[in-house]
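Human: Can I borrow your eye for a moment on a structure tokenisation matter? Separate attempts, laid side by side, tell us more than any discussion would. Could you pick a protein and write out its sequence and tokenised fold? No explanation is needed for now; the record alone will do.

Assistant:
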Amino acid sequence: MQHRIVILGAGTGGTLTANRLRSQYPAEAASITVVDQDDRHVYQPGLLFVPFGLARPEDIVRPRGSPAARRRRVPTEWHRPGRPRR
């Protein structure tokens, strides 16, 4: 029986939880879905550099489905409430 795990929120806590759960459950034992209100990931530590001109906002914001996002070691399904799944 495959477990279906749903994590609400893709912030630091949701991402860490998804990573930890994936290390405990192989893909065939559990599917992990992360639900978040935004399709974009903001690298929050980078926000410190924007006001000083050391980074541009577009440098610290990426779509969740971007190649950089797919390099994460956790295979997850991203879903935004109120929008159809792709």
